[in-house]
Amino acid sequence: MYLKKFRKPTVQDALRAVREELGPNALVLSTELVSSTGWRGWLGAREVQVTAGAAREMSESRPPASERRRADTGTGRDAIVARLVAGGVERALADEVAAGMPPAECRGASLASLTRALATHLTDAAAGHEAFARVEVFVGPPGVGKTTTLAKIAAQTRAREGRALGMVAADAFRAGAIEQLRVYADVIGSPFKVARTTEELDKALMSSRQPLLVDTAGRSPSDGGVRELLRLVGRRRGVRTHLVMAADTSAASARRIFDTYQDARPDRLIVTKLDEAESLSPLLSVARERGLPISYLTSGQRVPEDLDRATAALLADAVLRDPLRSCAVTA
Ligand SMILES: Nc1nc2c(ncn2[C@@H]2O[C@H](COP(=O)(O)OP(=O)(O)OP(=O)(O)O)[C@@H](O)[C@H]2O)c(=O)[nH]1
Ligand SMILES: [Mg+2]
After folding, report:
1. Which residues of 162-185 are buried (b: 16+ CB within 10 A; e: fewer)?
2. Is 11 a pocket residue for ligand 1 (Cβ < 6 Å)?
3. Which alpha helices (H) appear in 208-278, and where do they start and end?
């Protein structure tokens, strides 16, 4: 295959250049935003880089019609794989999805049918709708959206089911963090407790009759107090622990964060700030690699609107919705 990179100010310009040089059957293999060259790059300007491939250079003579038909059948699946890989999907998963699609559907597949096909392979990655555990704990790095997500869950549950889940601030050090959760609890009408020590937390976990949502401080687990707290929640029965991470976390950082929080024995992953991320793919790959189903997706600051239970369909949509990454060259 003949491969070439095209750099242009917009994705439309880059795709036009691909079509002009490599023809309508060219495959887009990757699309990324890169720093512009020269002084514009130094000033922070970015441009689109598309890597595209074609079966042959366009200067070669057109093959006979029978050969073209054979090539078209082959490139139907190849095009699906290329579109998925361009969306950041791992090659093995992209191959699986393409192999599962009927040949007739492969040629010129719409984004909607590609998303549906991808979703059928992501059922294990989504926790779907599940009943609340007795205690739901939220852990994760600073500022990823733990407190806001917890408030969204409590507020949606109050609005939909009319019941108020309990809230616990297990954050011994930051007065601001406790106040933030207290305000949410007041507005939502949730019973609220502060647990400043692991003993207080243990007591709160034992005594509550309704499901409890436990917020923790976004501090390093290498901090002694945090480590003890994570071990305590990791050991308890009836506790479901959600590790919270922002959607734009790179695969390398995600692996490091998973390792850092392993004492808390996370059962679920919550992916926040989808609205700010270029792609969910790196984090989704690591979640699948670690076998941690995704429980919730958040895509904005509004409480309670910007929260969804993760489903396979929503995950597939989050992977393929970015127009920069889901584009294919069509004639
Ligand atoms: N754009 C966007 N912002 C979000 C989202 N979720 C939370 N935020 C914002 O992220 C910031 C941090 O949110 P918090 O909920 O305080 O984060 P946290 O993890 O509890 O922070 P610490 O307790 O300091 O570790 C706030 O400004 C939130 O409004 C989201 O889905 N999208
Ligand atoms: Mg917080």
Report:
1. eebbbbbbbbbeeeebbebbbebb
2. no
3. 224-235, 251-260
Note whether residue 327 is domain-resident: no
pLDDT tens track for 287-311: 999 999 999 999 999 999 999 999 9
Atom of ligand 1 nearest to the CA of 272: 31
pTM for the model stands at: 0.77
pLDDT of residue 103: 78
Task: Output the CA 182–ligand 2 centroid distance in Å.
Answer: 11
146, 147, 148, 180: residue to mutate for ligand 1 pocket, most atoms within 8 A of CB:
148
Strands (E) in 190-253, as ranges, are: 192-194, 212-216, 239-246
Q: Note the Cα 273 to chain centre separation in Å.
A: 9
186 lines ligand 1 (CB under 6 A): no
The answer as to whether 116 is a domain residue is: no
Q: Which of 143, 137, 138, 100 is nearest to 118 (CA)?
A: 100
Residues 78 and 151 in one domain: no
Residues lining ion ligand 2 (Cβ < 5 A) are 146-147, 177
Domain count along the chain: 2
295 CB within 6 A, ligand 1: no
Which carries the bigger pLDDT value, residue 300 or residue 227? 300
| pLDDT (tens digit per residue) in 161-192 | 999 999 999 865 566 778 889 999 999 999 99
> Ligand 1 atom closest to Cα of 150?
15
Q: Is 218 in the pocket of ligand 1 (CB under 6 A)?
A: yes
Q: How far apart are CA 182 and CA 259, in angstroms?
A: 31
Kind and range of the H or E run holding 99: helix 91-100
In-domain check, residue 141:
yes
Are 37 and 144 in the same domain? Answer: no
Handedness of CA 260, 261, 265, 270 (dihedral sign): negative
Question: Given 74, 109, 144, which residue is the final one in a domain?
Answer: 109
Residue 286 has pLDDT above 90, yes or no: yes
